[in-house]
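Honest question from a wet-lab person: if I give you the sequences of every part of a complex, can you actually get the arrangement of the whole thing, not just the pieces? Trying it with mine:
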Amino acid sequence: MSSLPIQFAQADSSNSGLSAFNINLKDFIFQLITFVIVLLVLRKWVVPKLIDTLDRRQATLEKGLKDAKATEEALARAETKAEEIIAKARAAADEALAEAKKTAVTIIAGGETAASQRAALIIKEAQSRLSDEREKLRQELRKELADLVADTTEKVVAEKLDERHDRSLIERVIKGIAG
Amino acid sequence: MNKISRRSLARYAADQLEKGISTPQLASQLASAIIHAGLAKQVDFLVNDIAWELEQRGRLTTATLISARPLGGELAMEIKAALKKATKVEAVLIDEKVDKSVLGGIRIETPNQVWDSTISRKLKDLREAF
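Yes, you can. This is the full assembly:
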């Protein structure tokens, strides 16, 4: 029996439907057979390997995606943790700063109090010294004035006291002695 | 032998003078006692002690009058009378001194008392008051 394609080719040598399309049947069948052979070859040797390669690549990609996702998740967790640590550190720093400020305010207040007390003491001592100096000066002035008065009186009396007045002084003394 | 004190010598001298001993005799006795007691350097003090003793007994007082000018007889007599009354003694011996530095008034010194009413004293008091 001749093959079907050949039979079909012989039947088609006259003006059939295929020749209307200007198609050579022999060539067509030959190409078809070639196509099938190529297809079979590809299917047997190429496609599996291709599919295998594609599968491996897909697996790799999927693994990669999975890893990326895991990495992303780990990163997110790490970021969250980092934020938590930063927040804690910031809170601790704020607390330490507040404490330090409080301590500084206390120290400054204490220092100001001590300084103002010291200043008040210094002022009091200075006022006391000033008062003493003033009193000393006053005493010296009084003494100088007394000396001046006495010296002047001495000079005046030496010049002005006559015998009559001297006698009256002595008589006053005598009256005092006699009682 | 105990040393004789100046005060006991003065008392002895006053006793002797009250009894009416002559001055040279008393002087001789005192001189021996002074040398014996080693009081040769304290003769002036002894004389003052004797004068003090005599004034205490109301017998005699010796007064030194210091003034800027000579007093004159009348004033001296007045002072003598006043001292007699004040010290209650039988007799007053006066020694007058003139010292211009007192300026005026009078200073009267007896063995027991001093009256200083000189102007120089008043001025000194004025200085010291300040």
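Two things worth pointing out. Strands of chain B lie at 60-67, 91-98, 106-109, 114-116. The longest strand of chain B covers residues 60-67.
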